[in-house]
């Protein structure tokens, strides 16, 4: 009942495929069974996608722009000089954090966190599906792109020792950004990696025996390293993990996903790109301001990221956490005290080598005649300029052209996040 197929890859590695398709986890070893890596201090990227279009204007508040308050009579975040707990946390005399982002303020003050505002896609779509697809493929306006920008990065950057855990998404399905020819994994829980929970012990034991036998014969032990790592992850219990440096993760799914990214990072399995997402940002009705729907989401978002950064400690010198969302919200609040789909938005970068304590990008202003389509925050920084700088100046790829096909990206377009 077991069929074996062996495919040679690049003359030096092999993929062992066993006929247990119904028993695999949904994204088990997405393309290959490369060997688990050894401990290293390679550069890492942790990408966080805020799905649903977060309101960047109430996340990174332009309190110095009077038109922000004219456009939002009931949901605007108050100016810092008003005092109290529900006002913007001053950053630079013009912009401020939503008060629910207070866990991130220490990183700003230590110049480890930078913001790019009025950032987004040159494409005008207000469709969540299309805009997410364009951002994750890195090809705005092109629906035929088959792979994601992070996967193209993995293809372009060769490493001496491949790892089964080089690219991991803590999600149910492999995100568009990681789909492509390079190997990547998706797993909602580290402890569930491998055989599905419903598989019988006999099937699991048979799989392990057949895989180990084939791996030893075909890969001379390389595949066994990957399989041993797989077994170790499958027996990991996130509830027994103890974060370092007093970090406290929320019990939310997003908080637990970031905690498991920290686990994988510390396991020294060769993790280079990690991905997590958080939905619930589509606030058309009763958005709230410093309290309410948006505030609750921002609280989870900020506390989770802060815990990850604290937990990783000195490993953050080699790591950048990058946040993104498909587009922003309209400048003016709607009749339901919410905000409709917009255009420009804000991104954040935290960690290794980031020139923090600054808001990057040209501010276009919120006056009616300065808005995109007379209603939205205009985009003055293409999101690919941010991605490109991360790829080149943090991850170390010299030529970003293969990552962003059809887009001219000289260093002069980089926002300046890295020195």
Q: Could you give a short description of this structure?
A:
The chain is an alpha/beta fold and 419 residues long. It has helices at residues 56-59, 66-71, 105-109, 128-137, 149-156, 201-219, 222-234, 253-266, 293-312, 383-394, and strands spanning 4-9, 13-18, 44-50, 60-61, 89-90, 96-97, 113-120, 167-169, 185-186, 273-278, 319-324, 345-351, 359-360, 381-382.
Defining traits:
single chain; 419 residues; alpha/beta; Alkaline Phosphatase, subunit A; nine-stranded mixed beta sheet; three-stranded antiparallel beta sheet; 10 helices; 14 strands; 26% helix; 15% strand; globular
What do you see in this structure?
Helix 8 runs parallel beside helix 9. The chain has 419 residues and is an alpha/beta fold. The strands form 3 sheets. Strands 3, 7, 8, 9, 10, 11, 12, 13 and 14 form a 9-stranded mixed sheet that branches. The chain has 10 helices and 14 strands. The longest helix is centred in the C-terminal third of the chain and has 20 residues, at 293-312. It has one domain (27-193, 247-413): Alkaline Phosphatase, subunit A, CATH 3.40.720. Helices cover 26% and strands 15% of the residues. It is globular.
Number of strands: 14
The value of Rg in angstroms is 22 Å
Number of helices: 10
Query: In angstroms, what separates the terminal alpha carbons?
Result: 58 Å
The secondary structure category is alpha/beta
Low-confidence stretches: 1-40, 195-201, 218-222
CATH topology: Alkaline Phosphatase, subunit A
- SSE run: EEEHEHEEHEHHEEHHHEHEEEEH
The structural domain count equals: 1
Shape type: globular
Residue fraction in strands: 5-15%
Instruction: Return the CATH class.
Output: Alpha Beta
């Amino acid at each position: 009942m077991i069929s074996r197929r062996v495919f040679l890859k690049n003359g030096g590695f092999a993929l062992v495929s066993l006929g247990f398709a119904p028993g695999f986890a949904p994204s088990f070893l997405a393309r290959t069974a490369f060997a688990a890596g050894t401990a290293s201090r390679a550069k890492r990227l942790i990408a966080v996608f805020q799905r649903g279009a977060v309101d960047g204007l109430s996340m990174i508040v332009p309190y110095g722009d009077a038109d922000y308050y004219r456009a939002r009579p009931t949901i605007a975040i108050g100016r810092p000089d008003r005092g109290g707990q529900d006002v913007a946390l001053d950053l630079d005399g013009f912009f401020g954090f939503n008060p629910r982002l207070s866990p991130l303020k220490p990183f700003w003050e230590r110049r480890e966190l930078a913001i790019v505002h009025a950032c987004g896609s040159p494409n005008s779509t207000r469709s969540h599906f299309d805009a997410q697809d364009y951002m994750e493929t890195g090809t705005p306006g092109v629906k035929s792109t088959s792979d994601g920008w992070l996967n193209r990065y993995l293809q372009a950057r060769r490493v001496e020792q491949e790892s089964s855990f080089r690219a991991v998404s803590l999600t149910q399905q492999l995100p568009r950004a990681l789909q492509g020819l390079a190997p990547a994994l998706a797993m909602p829980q580290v402890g569930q990696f491998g055989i599905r929970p419903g598989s019988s012990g006999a099937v699991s034991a048979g799989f392990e025996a057949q895989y180990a036998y084939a791996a030893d014969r075909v890969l001379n032990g390389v595949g066994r390293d990957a399989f041993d790592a797989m077994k170790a992850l499958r027996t990991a219990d996130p509830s027994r993990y103890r974060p370092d440096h007093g970090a406290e993760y929320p019990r939310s799914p997003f908080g637990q996903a970031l905690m498991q990214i920290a686990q994988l990072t510390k396991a020294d399995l060769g993790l280079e790109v990690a991905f997590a997402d958080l939905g619930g940002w589509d606030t058309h009705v009763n958005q709230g301001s410093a309290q309410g729907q948006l505030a609750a989401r921002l609280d989870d978002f900020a506390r989770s990221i802060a815990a990850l950064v604290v937990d990783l400690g000195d490993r953050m010198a080699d790591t950048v956490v990058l946040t993104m969302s498909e587009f922003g919200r309209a400048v003016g609040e709607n009749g339901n005290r919410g905000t409709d789909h917009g255009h420009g938005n804000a991104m954040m970068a935290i960690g290794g080598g980031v020139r923090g304590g600054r808001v990057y990008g040209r501010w276009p202003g919120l006056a009616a005649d300065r808005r995109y389509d007379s209603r939205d925050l205009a985009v003055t920084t293409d999101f690919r300029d941010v991605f490109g700088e991360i790829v080149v100046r943090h991850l170390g790829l010299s030529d970003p052209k293969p990552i962003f096909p059809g887009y001219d990206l000289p260093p002069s377009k980089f926002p300046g996040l890295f020195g």
